[in-house]
Amino acid sequence: MPFGVAQAHHLNSCPRMFVKMKPDGSSGSCAALRRSVRCSRTESTPPVTEARLQHSEGGVAGMAKLRGLEQKVELLGIDCEDLSRPGFYSNLFCPKCRGGQKVERSLSFHIVQSVEFAMWRCFRMECGWAGQAFADSGKSCDGDYAAIEVGSAVDMTEESLRLEPLSDEIIGYFAERKILEETLQRNGVKQVSGKQSEICFTYKRKGQIVSCKYRTLDKKFRQKGVIKAFYGLDDISEADEIIIVEGEIDKLSMEEAGFINCVSVPSGAPCKVSDKQLPSPDKDKAFQYLWNCKDYLDKASRIILATDGDAPGQALAEELARRLGKQRCWKVNWPKKDDSGSFNDANEVLKHLGPTALREVIEHAEAMSPTYSEPSNA
């Protein structure tokens, strides 16, 4: 059933709801409403904990993953409630419109059976708020996940997001990583007004901000946006050769080495390469940013994957190549750092070896297709 359409239970299947009006004509708080009414899919349901364990893949571990995902959407104001179960649709109160004058449970909320992500949409025409939160959007698998809030394109401006030029502290932070202030300015890197240590990377498509990723100096992330897209997308609009990296700072590092034609994935890497068949584009939620930018990627005849050198980063390179076609993908090999291992990403190479060394790494990327051979100079 299409996302956003409530399934077996609708508002008229809920118990009748009585709202106590305040003297000023406003209704009581949504918290009170949440306590006063619960929707159920069936007339008889098992106890909450038992039901959620039954519908959460992975038993107790799956339950912990489910709770971690719920905590992220709760940061956006969504009350998942105890009866939200993976694989089922729930009608909840929308934190944006509060259900309008009728105080409807207008937010269609769904956690997929595998607990990999949650999605929601308010079906009130005046609102339409929608979004997704992914359990694997961070590189770690320990519950340190990021939520993505989806809003209206009209809202995504520097003014509405309360962005301002970078402070000397943040400029110094990037300088330590060999990234110049002019590079930050060209890429629209800002900070949140009133939050001196929170950096904002603005994601743009045709000059319009479509998403923002926020990062504190101690590496805490959050994300807000209209669509999932690559960071730096406008820089590859006409590129025949592009570079894909695994973080905004790596994208900026590539520019210091002379590569403008570079984008970063908006979220982290999977823990491992999937052994399942590729899903159709409309169901490939973890890589939706790739399909949203397909018209840009289709123009490229050569794609260099410069993801991190750790296991998740290498898994990400393989997953990207599966979707992009290995025949046009090349992969970098990060240089040795010492006897214990190699550098992990573009910024490490830039910081320790300099821009020339980083450029050489890209120029010596290896073809991923075993049938590819370099053209003869003859």
Automatic annotation (TrEMBL):
Please name the source species. Answer: Rhodamnia argentea
Instruction: Tell me the protein's name.
Output: Primase homolog protein isoform X7
- Organismal lineage: Eukaryota, Viridiplantae, Streptophyta, Embryophyta, Tracheophyta
The record, for SUPFAM superfamilies, names: DNA primase core
Q: Name the InterPro entries on file.
A: TOPRIM_DnaG/twinkle, TOPRIM_dom, Twinkle-like
* Gene3D superfamilies named in the record: 3.40.1360.10
For the Toprim domain, which residue ranges apply?
240-329
Which PANTHER family does the annotation name?
A: T7-LIKE MITOCHONDRIAL DNA HELICASE, TOPRIM DOMAIN-CONTAINING PROTEIN
